[in-house]
Design a protein that fits this description.
Protein Transport Mog1p, Chain A; 405 residues; seven-stranded antiparallel beta sheet; alpha+beta; elongated; 3 domains; 16 strands
Length: 405
């Protein structure tokens, strides 16, 4: 009877636990569960700022279709899709290429790849440069390459109107590459400033955030070599998930170039530092000759240093003391962040339910044993107090019938 009572209690507890546990909803068609989603907005509109295209902008998914000469670096930056369009206004034309990337790191890297450090800066989007009738700018995860048949004073404002229509990523996709924060700010050469004419005359546009940065950010060998990397791309280690950034510095004793390479772990960075240091010490006389940037550098000023998973290299014409100060100013500090715990799966919920049932049975069983000992022991003490045996199982019990003649 006690065992049946325990099973009944366990069944009751199981039913209560099942009611408290959220039930997985059966999948329903999206149309029955939510309103239909609107199609994704295209990168390029049919018309803006007086510019109109006679044909709908063409969507491309292969980087070779939008820039055959630079398809390899675009793939390294994570090119997802693009659009091309030719706009007309009177007898003028405007050809635009829009390149979409998965995040800000990809768009900023691609923008730096296209940008020439000697091109003047424009105030369009998150950063822009121009070269004659060609303007390259980026905003969010998009890079725009625009070519005017004729440039007007209002051309920049027209592209700013286009930039305002570009989508902006959110969350981690909107964050710049973390390696950029390790670049020393002192003496860093920002992108060439550009004077624009306003209502009060000419004014200098200040740089903000990533807008004024001169570094070239690379995620692969093609992008690194194409943007003027100092080291041989094969020596950087992009096959080990490396990221590289190259920035120019105007030191008191001469120009210098700082190269930072980020690796997944400090152990990989240590091995890479050994290889790069041996390459620098060889003076270009080994199996791999010096690149042109290293050949043009003061050999006494070349210095390599590792800090955490970062390897730093200084090249250029600055004196060794200034180069040493620059490379020593690079410091990596790891920030430990609490990772969010994933939600509880159905398997975990089932396991927890079975565990709770087992514990409930053990507790109820133990309580039954203790209750039996308490009641049985009390009865035995009571019988012994009356001078009877503790147990009645040895007593002969008779049923008497009071029969009289």
């Amino acid at each position: 009877m006690r065992f049946l009572a325990i099973l009944a209690c366990a069944a009751t507890f199981t039913a209560a636990q099942a009611q408290s546990t959220p039930k997985a909803q059966s999948p329903v068609p999206p149309a029955a569960n939510a309103a239909p989603q609107s199609p994704e907005k295209p990168l390029l509109p049919g018309a803006f700022a007086g510019w109109v295209t006679n044909e709908a902008p063409k969507t491309v998914s292969d980087p070779a279709q939008i820039d055959a000469a630079n398809a390899a670096p675009l793939k390294e930056y994570g090119f997802e899709s693009g659009m091309t369009a030719t706009y007309k206004r009177d007898d003028e034309t405007l050809t635009i290429k829009a390149l979409r990337f998965p995040d800000v790191s990809g768009s900023f890297g691609a923008y730096g790849f296209y940008r020439d450090a000697k091109w003047p800066k424009e105030q369009i989007g998150s950063g822009a440069v121009s070269n004659g009738n060609r303007v390259v700018f980026w905003r969010g995860a998009t890079v725009i390459d625009a070519t005017f048949s004729k440039v007007h004073p209002e051309s920049a404002s027209e592209l700013r109107e286009l930039a305002d229509t570009l989508p902006s990523p959110s969350g981690n996709k909107a964050l710049p590459p973390p390696i950029l924060s390790l670049l020393p700010k002192s003496d860093r050469e920002d992108q060439t400033a550009h004077y624009v004419k306003g209502p009060d005359g000419f004014a200098l546009i200040p740089s903000k955030g990533l807008e004024g940065l001169s570094p070239h950010y690379a995620l692969g060998p093609a992008g690194y070599a194409g943007s003027g990397g100092v080291l041989p791309a094969s020596l950087v280690g992009f096959d080990r998930d490396a990221e590289a950034v190259t920035a120019s510095y105007a030191l008191s004793s001469g120009p210098a170039t700082l190269t930072l390479i980020s690796y997944p772990t400090a152990q990989i960075a240590t091995a890479a530092e050994t290889q790069i240091r041996a390459y620098i010490q060889s003076g270009g006389k080994g199996q791999t000759p010096f690149t042109k940037p290293l050949q043009d550098s003061d050999q006494a000023s070349l210095e390599v240093r590792r800090t955490g998973p970062i390897v730093a290299l200084v090249s250029g014409d600055a004196v060794p003391d200034d180069s040493h100060k620059l490379v020593q100013s690079v410091h990596y500090s790891s920030d430990l962040t609490k990772m969010p715990m994933p939600g509880i799966s159905e398997v975990a919920k089932t396991g927890s339910l079975l565990y709770n049932i087992a514990m409930f049975v053990v507790v109820i069983g133990g309580a039954a044993v203790l209750l039996g000992l308490f009641l049985g022991g009390g009865r035995a003490i009571y019988r012994m107090a009356r001078g009877k045996p503790a147990s009645s199982m040895y007593e002969a019990e008779f049923t008497s019938l009071d029969l009289r003649e």
